[in-house]
Write the structure tokens for this entry.
Amino acid sequence: MTYAHTTTLHGSIVMPMHGLGVFQTQNGKEVRDTVTWAIEDGYRLIDTAAIYRNETGVGEAIATSGIPRDEIFVTTKLWNTEQGYESTLAALDASLQRLSMDYVDLYLIHWPVPEKTEDTWRAMEHIQAQGLSKAIGISNFEPHHLEQLMGAANIAPSVNQVELHPNLQQRHIRSANTAVGCLTQAWSPLKQGKVLSDPTIEGVASELGVTSAQVVIRWQIQSGIATIPKSVHQRRIQENRDVFGFSLDTDQMAAMESLDNGDRIGPHPDNRDF
Ligand code: NDP
């Protein structure tokens, strides 16, 4: 079974395949604690966004972690209302100020806004050229959104972060991403906890002597999908990272792959109303 702890973007930027998501984590003590626990436990990727309103706390926890900034991979995202050339540059500047950082490792377009894609991506390419983000990417892009972007792009996106869990395996998106050298990263990798009592997953978990969450995270990593489970509980943060000491065999991988039923928790990117 092949898997990797890290991958490489643009030939030189090392990105962990596993990290901590901080959606719905309160700015201040809650996000500082979760990021601190995660880094202590060995996490080296933190996924935030301007719209999560917790970049300040993320930056504070990283600054006081004792780990050099260049050993932690920080992702943040451009909110929909800020798309466009100048507004994208200004939005990244505001995120960097909140993070108290002079660069991020990955800047993502949070959702496709097709009428703005060209201008926004031009700004993203400028951001990468200036070193303000080491890599640039997208989120919630269906293959047709990616095709539109590629029509105007000089640099292909490094990452496409999409809703992806056992019930929504996004094979069409994964193959479109792969075709342009773009890594797929799973958001809501645990389906916000709603997939953890699935009997098939519980069965694999009991065969392996691990938890359902660990099975799901491990299945993603073994499938070459980067993953960013979120928790505000130290014990779960540790549990979600303890996935490198076991592996799913071919039958267990096939069992996981049989769970794709198209059920999503977020909106389809073509029907977003925010
Ligand atoms: P997840 O699938 O990561 O699930 C998080 C939920 O599962 C929380 O309720 C958490 O509870 C619970 N949980 C976590 N670990 C365990 C465990 N081991 N056992 C039982 N329950 C557990 O959902 P998210 O929506 O948070 O997605 C992850 C990250 O993806 C986000 O934090 C964000 O960074 C990113 N994201 C990106 C989006 C995008 O549009 N690009 C959209 C949504 C998310 P508790 O916290 O109480 O422990």
The mean pLDDT is 96.
